[in-house]
Model the fold of this input.
Amino acid sequence: MKKLFLLAAIAVMPFFVSAQELKFGYINAMQVLYDMPEISGIETQLADYVAQNRKMLEDMQAEAQKQYELFQEMMQDPNITDARKKVQLETVQGLEQRLQTTQTTIQQDIQQRQMQLLQPVQERLQKAIDAVGKKNNFFMVFNLDSEAVVYKSDKAIDVTPLVKKELNIK
Done:
């Protein structure tokens, strides 16, 4: 039944196409996104956050290294009990585990923060694309960043400059 409907739609499509010329456009949305003035502020915020966390991680790594070196010394000293060596080993392992957990958490925080900061910018970009599409009577606008576009005709129109104009980007 679905195949029959699809065949009927394909058969009828030339009649609709001949009634009006369909305009297709394309855009490099990532290029426009990176040209938006808000991006430099977002990059600065993320870089500051990464720098703050890098210092904390470096401190944690230094402490773990210090405790590991102490453990290595203890292993060479026959006067230190096995129980004390075991406690030191557990300390080193705990620090390494905490360091790994902290690294994972920071990476997730950075990704979440990036998504939160980019969301309003992406929404603004989408509104501009929608406005250009409506103003210029485009049937569809494809994003060249997507792998879905496998062919681009010479008749397709690059709407990137129109969207940049809509966003007041030079």
Q: What stands out?
A: The first strand starts at residue 24 and ends at 27. Helices lie at 2-19, 29-35, 38-76, 82-135, 160-166.
